[in-house]
Amino acid sequence: MNSFGRKFKVSIFGESHGVNIGATIDGTPPGIPLCENDFANDLDRRKPNAKGTTSRKETDTPTIVSGVFNGYTTGAPITILFQNNNTISNDYKNLAQHPRPSHADFVAGVKYKGFNDPRGGGHFSGRITLTLVAAGVIAKKILDQFGVNIEAQIVSIAGVDIDNTNPKTEQIIEHKIEQALANCDSLGGVVKCTAKGVKVGIGEPFFDSVESRISHIIFAIPAVKAIEFGEGFNIANMNGSDANDTIINAKGTTKTNHNGGVVGGIANGNDITFKVAIKPTPSIAKPQPTFNLESQKIENLEIKGRHDACITLRTPVIIEAAAAIAIADLYSI
Ligand SMILES: Cc1cc2nc3c(=O)[nH]c(=O)nc-3n(C[C@H](O)[C@H](O)[C@H](O)COP(=O)(O)O)c2cc1C
Fold first, then answer.
1. Using one digit for the tens of pLDDT, what is the confidence trace for 220-279?
2. Closest residue (by CA) to atom 21 of ligand 1?
3. Check: CATH 3.30.300.30 for 3-332?
4. Which residue ranges have their beta carbon within 6 Å of ligand 1?
5. Domain limits of the chain?
6. What is the pTM of this model?
Protein backbone atom coordinates (compact mmCIF):
# COMPACT_ATOMS: atom_id res chain seq x y z
CA MET A 1 0.00 0.00 0.00
CA ASN A 2 1.37 3.42 0.87
CA SER A 3 3.61 2.41 3.77
CA PHE A 4 7.04 0.80 3.85
CA GLY A 5 9.12 -0.59 6.71
CA ARG A 6 8.74 -2.81 9.75
CA LYS A 7 10.13 -0.73 12.62
CA PHE A 8 11.26 2.36 10.77
CA LYS A 9 8.01 2.88 8.92
CA VAL A 10 7.30 5.50 6.28
CA SER A 11 3.78 6.32 5.06
CA ILE A 12 3.34 8.79 2.23
CA PHE A 13 0.22 10.63 1.16
CA GLY A 14 -1.14 13.23 -1.22
CA GLU A 15 -1.76 14.00 -4.86
CA SER A 16 0.10 16.14 -7.35
CA HIS A 17 -2.55 18.89 -7.39
CA GLY A 18 -4.10 18.32 -3.94
CA VAL A 19 -3.72 20.78 -1.08
CA ASN A 20 -0.87 18.98 0.69
CA ILE A 21 1.46 16.06 0.25
CA GLY A 22 3.43 14.57 3.10
CA ALA A 23 4.97 11.70 4.98
CA THR A 24 4.54 10.18 8.41
CA ILE A 25 7.65 8.49 9.75
CA ASP A 26 7.24 6.13 12.68
CA GLY A 27 10.08 4.45 14.58
CA THR A 28 12.57 7.30 14.68
CA PRO A 29 14.64 7.07 17.87
CA PRO A 30 14.22 9.99 20.30
CA GLY A 31 16.91 12.63 20.68
CA ILE A 32 17.94 13.16 17.06
CA PRO A 33 18.32 16.88 16.30
CA LEU A 34 15.83 17.79 13.57
CA CYS A 35 14.49 21.04 12.16
CA GLU A 36 12.99 22.21 8.87
CA ASN A 37 16.36 23.54 7.64
CA ASP A 38 17.82 20.02 7.75
CA PHE A 39 15.71 19.12 4.71
CA ALA A 40 16.87 22.00 2.48
CA ASN A 41 19.87 20.38 0.82
CA ASP A 42 18.17 17.16 -0.29
CA LEU A 43 14.90 18.87 -1.22
CA ASP A 44 16.85 21.33 -3.40
CA ARG A 45 18.65 18.48 -5.14
CA ARG A 46 15.27 17.09 -6.23
CA LYS A 47 14.07 20.43 -7.61
CA PRO A 48 13.67 20.80 -11.37
CA ASN A 49 16.58 23.15 -12.03
CA ALA A 50 18.28 21.54 -15.04
CA LYS A 51 17.40 21.80 -18.72
CA GLY A 52 15.08 18.87 -19.46
CA THR A 53 13.14 19.13 -16.19
CA THR A 54 9.62 20.46 -15.59
CA SER A 55 8.85 24.18 -15.50
CA ARG A 56 6.53 23.61 -12.51
CA LYS A 57 8.22 25.44 -9.64
CA GLU A 58 7.20 24.77 -6.07
CA THR A 59 8.86 26.12 -2.93
CA ASP A 60 8.87 22.63 -1.34
CA THR A 61 8.94 24.17 2.12
CA PRO A 62 8.55 21.43 4.76
CA THR A 63 6.42 21.90 7.86
CA ILE A 64 7.05 19.46 10.70
CA VAL A 65 3.69 19.02 12.40
CA SER A 66 4.52 16.28 14.93
CA GLY A 67 7.25 14.21 16.51
CA VAL A 68 9.75 17.01 17.14
CA PHE A 69 10.01 19.07 20.34
CA ASN A 70 12.64 21.66 21.22
CA GLY A 71 14.62 20.71 18.10
CA TYR A 72 14.85 16.97 18.85
CA THR A 73 12.84 13.96 17.71
CA THR A 74 10.57 12.75 20.49
CA GLY A 75 10.20 9.13 19.38
CA ALA A 76 6.55 9.73 18.37
CA PRO A 77 5.54 9.65 14.68
CA ILE A 78 6.93 12.55 12.69
CA THR A 79 4.62 14.08 10.09
CA ILE A 80 6.02 16.44 7.47
CA LEU A 81 3.72 18.44 5.23
CA PHE A 82 4.28 20.29 1.94
CA GLN A 83 1.89 22.49 0.01
CA ASN A 84 1.11 22.26 -3.70
CA ASN A 85 0.80 25.81 -4.97
CA ASN A 86 1.75 25.76 -8.64
CA THR A 87 -0.88 23.58 -10.27
CA ILE A 88 -2.57 23.78 -13.69
CA SER A 89 -5.15 21.02 -13.57
CA ASN A 90 -6.99 21.71 -16.85
CA ASP A 91 -4.19 20.05 -18.83
CA TYR A 92 -5.22 16.65 -17.45
CA LYS A 93 -8.98 16.66 -17.92
CA ASN A 94 -9.11 14.47 -21.07
CA LEU A 95 -6.76 11.76 -19.77
CA ALA A 96 -9.38 9.61 -18.02
CA GLN A 97 -11.01 9.03 -21.43
CA HIS A 98 -7.77 9.05 -23.43
CA PRO A 99 -5.18 7.58 -21.06
CA ARG A 100 -1.50 8.25 -21.55
CA PRO A 101 0.53 5.26 -22.72
CA SER A 102 3.09 4.15 -20.12
CA HIS A 103 1.44 6.27 -17.42
CA ALA A 104 -0.94 5.14 -14.67
CA ASP A 105 -4.12 6.85 -16.01
CA PHE A 106 -5.66 3.64 -17.40
CA VAL A 107 -4.81 1.29 -14.52
CA ALA A 108 -5.80 3.86 -11.87
CA GLY A 109 -9.12 4.48 -13.65
CA VAL A 110 -9.92 0.75 -13.62
CA LYS A 111 -8.63 0.01 -10.11
CA TYR A 112 -10.30 2.98 -8.42
CA LYS A 113 -13.42 2.88 -10.61
CA GLY A 114 -12.83 6.40 -11.94
CA PHE A 115 -12.70 7.96 -8.46
CA ASN A 116 -8.93 8.54 -8.59
CA ASP A 117 -7.64 12.11 -8.76
CA PRO A 118 -6.25 12.46 -12.31
CA ARG A 119 -4.87 15.99 -11.90
CA GLY A 120 -1.15 16.01 -12.58
CA GLY A 121 -1.08 12.21 -12.31
CA GLY A 122 -2.69 12.37 -8.83
CA HIS A 123 -1.12 9.96 -6.35
CA PHE A 124 1.03 8.44 -9.13
CA SER A 125 2.88 11.68 -9.80
CA GLY A 126 6.64 12.07 -9.46
CA ARG A 127 5.71 14.99 -7.18
CA ILE A 128 5.01 12.50 -4.40
CA THR A 129 8.72 11.56 -4.35
CA LEU A 130 9.24 14.82 -2.44
CA THR A 131 7.81 13.02 0.57
CA LEU A 132 10.25 10.12 0.13
CA VAL A 133 13.17 12.54 0.01
CA ALA A 134 11.94 14.14 3.26
CA ALA A 135 11.67 10.75 4.97
CA GLY A 136 15.11 9.92 3.56
CA VAL A 137 16.62 12.90 5.38
CA ILE A 138 15.53 11.36 8.68
CA ALA A 139 16.72 7.89 7.62
CA LYS A 140 20.11 9.36 6.69
CA LYS A 141 20.34 10.98 10.13
CA ILE A 142 19.72 7.60 11.78
CA LEU A 143 22.29 5.94 9.52
CA ASP A 144 24.85 8.68 10.27
CA GLN A 145 24.94 7.34 13.82
CA PHE A 146 26.01 3.95 12.43
CA GLY A 147 28.60 5.47 10.09
CA VAL A 148 26.57 4.63 6.98
CA ASN A 149 26.76 7.02 4.05
CA ILE A 150 24.71 6.77 0.84
CA GLU A 151 25.42 8.52 -2.44
CA ALA A 152 23.82 8.20 -5.86
CA GLN A 153 24.85 9.64 -9.19
CA ILE A 154 23.74 9.46 -12.81
CA VAL A 155 25.92 7.08 -14.84
CA SER A 156 24.24 7.36 -18.23
CA ILE A 157 21.52 9.18 -20.09
CA ALA A 158 19.94 7.78 -23.24
CA GLY A 159 22.68 5.15 -23.45
CA VAL A 160 25.55 7.69 -23.24
CA ASP A 161 27.87 6.97 -20.31
CA ILE A 162 28.88 9.97 -18.25
CA ASP A 163 32.66 10.18 -18.20
CA ASN A 164 33.87 13.00 -15.96
CA THR A 165 37.33 12.85 -17.53
CA ASN A 166 35.85 13.51 -20.97
CA PRO A 167 33.88 16.79 -21.18
CA LYS A 168 32.60 15.69 -24.60
CA THR A 169 30.19 13.20 -23.01
CA GLU A 170 28.51 16.07 -21.14
CA GLN A 171 28.09 17.95 -24.43
CA ILE A 172 26.68 14.86 -26.17
CA ILE A 173 24.14 14.39 -23.38
CA GLU A 174 23.20 18.07 -23.40
CA HIS A 175 22.68 17.83 -27.14
CA LYS A 176 20.51 14.72 -26.72
CA ILE A 177 18.36 16.53 -24.16
CA GLU A 178 18.01 19.56 -26.46
CA GLN A 179 17.04 17.25 -29.33
CA ALA A 180 14.47 15.47 -27.18
CA LEU A 181 12.98 18.83 -26.14
CA ALA A 182 12.88 20.03 -29.76
CA ASN A 183 11.20 16.78 -30.83
CA CYS A 184 8.71 16.89 -27.94
CA ASP A 185 10.14 13.57 -26.79
CA SER A 186 11.77 12.21 -23.61
CA LEU A 187 14.84 10.27 -22.46
CA GLY A 188 15.72 7.61 -19.89
CA GLY A 189 18.85 6.98 -17.88
CA VAL A 190 20.70 4.95 -15.28
CA VAL A 191 21.63 5.95 -11.72
CA LYS A 192 24.22 4.19 -9.56
CA CYS A 193 23.91 4.16 -5.79
CA THR A 194 26.54 3.20 -3.21
CA ALA A 195 25.96 2.66 0.50
CA LYS A 196 29.24 2.73 2.43
CA GLY A 197 29.70 1.54 6.01
CA VAL A 198 26.81 -0.93 6.27
CA LYS A 199 28.02 -3.44 8.84
CA VAL A 200 28.42 -7.15 8.20
CA GLY A 201 25.26 -9.04 9.16
CA ILE A 202 22.60 -6.47 8.29
CA GLY A 203 19.76 -8.08 6.30
CA GLU A 204 17.93 -11.37 6.55
CA PRO A 205 18.09 -14.51 4.43
CA PHE A 206 15.44 -15.09 1.76
CA PHE A 207 12.49 -12.69 1.92
CA ASP A 208 14.02 -9.76 3.77
CA SER A 209 17.38 -9.84 2.05
CA VAL A 210 19.16 -6.53 1.62
CA GLU A 211 18.51 -6.80 -2.12
CA SER A 212 14.79 -7.55 -1.58
CA ARG A 213 14.19 -4.64 0.78
CA ILE A 214 16.11 -2.13 -1.31
CA SER A 215 14.44 -3.33 -4.53
CA HIS A 216 11.01 -3.17 -2.88
CA ILE A 217 11.31 0.51 -2.08
CA ILE A 218 13.25 1.45 -5.23
CA PHE A 219 10.36 0.15 -7.34
CA ALA A 220 8.06 2.51 -5.42
CA ILE A 221 9.77 5.36 -7.25
CA PRO A 222 7.68 6.14 -10.33
CA ALA A 223 9.44 5.43 -13.64
CA VAL A 224 11.91 2.85 -12.21
CA LYS A 225 11.97 -0.22 -14.43
CA ALA A 226 15.04 -2.19 -13.36
CA ILE A 227 17.58 -2.62 -10.60
CA GLU A 228 20.78 -4.65 -10.51
CA PHE A 229 23.23 -5.21 -7.66
CA GLY A 230 26.99 -5.31 -8.14
CA GLU A 231 27.78 -6.78 -11.53
CA GLY A 232 24.04 -7.30 -12.07
CA PHE A 233 22.95 -8.94 -15.31
CA ASN A 234 26.55 -9.07 -16.49
CA ILE A 235 27.45 -11.60 -13.78
CA ALA A 236 25.63 -14.21 -15.87
CA ASN A 237 28.36 -13.84 -18.51
CA MET A 238 31.28 -14.34 -16.10
CA ASN A 239 33.07 -17.47 -14.92
CA GLY A 240 32.94 -18.26 -11.21
CA SER A 241 36.69 -17.67 -11.00
CA ASP A 242 36.17 -14.08 -12.21
CA ALA A 243 32.87 -13.39 -10.47
CA ASN A 244 33.85 -14.62 -6.99
CA ASP A 245 34.94 -11.83 -4.67
CA THR A 246 38.15 -12.94 -2.91
CA ILE A 247 38.03 -12.26 0.84
CA ILE A 248 41.28 -10.58 1.87
CA ASN A 249 40.99 -10.12 5.64
CA ALA A 250 39.13 -11.11 8.79
CA LYS A 251 36.72 -8.17 8.41
CA GLY A 252 35.44 -9.77 5.20
CA THR A 253 36.82 -7.10 2.89
CA THR A 254 36.78 -8.40 -0.67
CA LYS A 255 39.22 -7.68 -3.48
CA THR A 256 36.44 -7.12 -5.99
CA ASN A 257 32.76 -6.39 -5.37
CA HIS A 258 30.85 -8.19 -8.11
CA ASN A 259 28.18 -9.17 -5.57
CA GLY A 260 27.47 -5.54 -4.70
CA GLY A 261 28.15 -5.97 -0.99
CA VAL A 262 25.45 -8.58 -0.39
CA VAL A 263 25.74 -12.38 -0.16
CA GLY A 264 23.08 -14.70 1.20
CA GLY A 265 20.86 -11.63 1.41
CA ILE A 266 23.16 -10.24 4.12
CA ALA A 267 25.52 -7.25 3.93
CA ASN A 268 29.13 -8.46 3.81
CA GLY A 269 30.66 -5.18 4.98
CA ASN A 270 31.76 -4.01 1.54
CA ASP A 271 30.03 -1.18 -0.32
CA ILE A 272 26.45 -2.01 -1.26
CA THR A 273 26.21 -1.01 -4.90
CA PHE A 274 23.25 -1.06 -7.24
CA LYS A 275 22.11 0.53 -10.47
CA VAL A 276 18.61 1.68 -11.33
CA ALA A 277 17.10 2.14 -14.80
CA ILE A 278 14.69 5.06 -15.18
CA LYS A 279 12.38 5.02 -18.16
CA PRO A 280 11.83 7.97 -20.50
CA THR A 281 9.03 10.23 -19.24
CA PRO A 282 5.69 8.87 -20.44
CA SER A 283 4.15 12.34 -20.96
CA ILE A 284 5.53 13.61 -24.26
CA ALA A 285 4.01 16.38 -26.35
CA LYS A 286 4.76 14.46 -29.56
CA PRO A 287 1.45 13.05 -30.85
CA GLN A 288 1.24 9.32 -30.16
CA PRO A 289 -1.47 6.80 -30.99
CA THR A 290 -3.36 5.33 -28.04
CA PHE A 291 -6.84 3.99 -27.36
CA ASN A 292 -9.59 6.51 -26.65
CA LEU A 293 -12.10 4.92 -24.27
CA GLU A 294 -14.80 7.40 -25.31
CA SER A 295 -14.57 7.05 -29.10
CA GLN A 296 -13.41 3.40 -28.79
CA LYS A 297 -10.74 4.12 -31.40
CA ILE A 298 -6.97 4.41 -31.43
CA GLU A 299 -6.37 8.13 -31.84
CA ASN A 300 -3.40 10.46 -31.58
CA LEU A 301 -2.91 11.94 -28.13
CA GLU A 302 -1.02 15.22 -27.71
CA ILE A 303 -0.18 15.48 -24.03
CA LYS A 304 -0.29 18.93 -22.47
CA GLY A 305 1.05 20.05 -19.12
CA ARG A 306 4.52 20.64 -17.74
CA HIS A 307 6.72 17.58 -17.69
CA ASP A 308 10.27 16.45 -17.11
CA ALA A 309 11.79 15.44 -20.44
CA CYS A 310 14.38 13.42 -18.52
CA ILE A 311 13.22 12.22 -15.10
CA THR A 312 16.66 10.68 -14.45
CA LEU A 313 18.11 14.15 -13.83
CA ARG A 314 16.04 14.44 -10.66
CA THR A 315 16.33 10.92 -9.30
CA PRO A 316 19.72 10.48 -7.57
CA VAL A 317 18.54 12.09 -4.32
CA ILE A 318 15.27 10.12 -4.45
CA ILE A 319 17.17 6.85 -4.87
CA GLU A 320 19.47 7.78 -1.97
CA ALA A 321 16.42 8.47 0.19
CA ALA A 322 14.76 5.18 -0.72
CA ALA A 323 17.94 3.21 0.01
CA ALA A 324 18.41 5.06 3.31
CA ILE A 325 14.84 4.22 4.39
CA ALA A 326 15.31 0.50 3.55
CA ILE A 327 18.70 0.27 5.28
CA ALA A 328 17.53 2.25 8.35
CA ASP A 329 14.65 -0.21 8.65
CA LEU A 330 17.00 -3.20 8.36
CA TYR A 331 19.16 -1.70 11.14
CA SER A 332 16.12 -1.38 13.40
CA ILE A 333 14.71 -4.92 12.85
C1 LIG B 1 10.98 12.90 -10.06
C2 LIG B 1 9.99 12.33 -11.02
C3 LIG B 1 9.37 13.17 -11.94
C4 LIG B 1 8.46 12.66 -12.85
N5 LIG B 1 7.91 13.53 -13.76
C6 LIG B 1 7.05 13.04 -14.67
C7 LIG B 1 6.47 13.92 -15.63
O8 LIG B 1 6.76 15.11 -15.66
N9 LIG B 1 5.62 13.40 -16.52
C10 LIG B 1 5.29 12.07 -16.54
O11 LIG B 1 4.52 11.63 -17.37
N12 LIG B 1 5.83 11.22 -15.65
C13 LIG B 1 6.69 11.66 -14.72
N14 LIG B 1 7.23 10.80 -13.80
C15 LIG B 1 6.95 9.36 -13.93
C16 LIG B 1 5.53 8.94 -13.67
O17 LIG B 1 5.09 9.36 -12.41
C18 LIG B 1 5.44 7.41 -13.83
O19 LIG B 1 6.04 7.01 -15.02
C20 LIG B 1 4.00 6.94 -13.83
O21 LIG B 1 3.42 7.15 -12.57
C22 LIG B 1 3.85 5.47 -14.19
O23 LIG B 1 4.53 4.66 -13.26
P24 LIG B 1 5.71 3.69 -13.69
O25 LIG B 1 6.54 4.44 -14.68
O26 LIG B 1 6.46 3.43 -12.43
O27 LIG B 1 5.11 2.48 -14.30
C28 LIG B 1 8.15 11.28 -12.86
C29 LIG B 1 8.76 10.43 -11.93
C30 LIG B 1 9.68 10.95 -11.02
C31 LIG B 1 10.35 10.03 -10.06
1. 999 999 999 999 999 999 999 999 999 999 999 999 999 999 999 999 999 999 999 999
2. 124
3. no
4. 54, 103-104, 121, 124-126, 129, 221-223, 279, 281-283, 307-308, 311, 314-315, 318
5. 3-332
6. 0.97
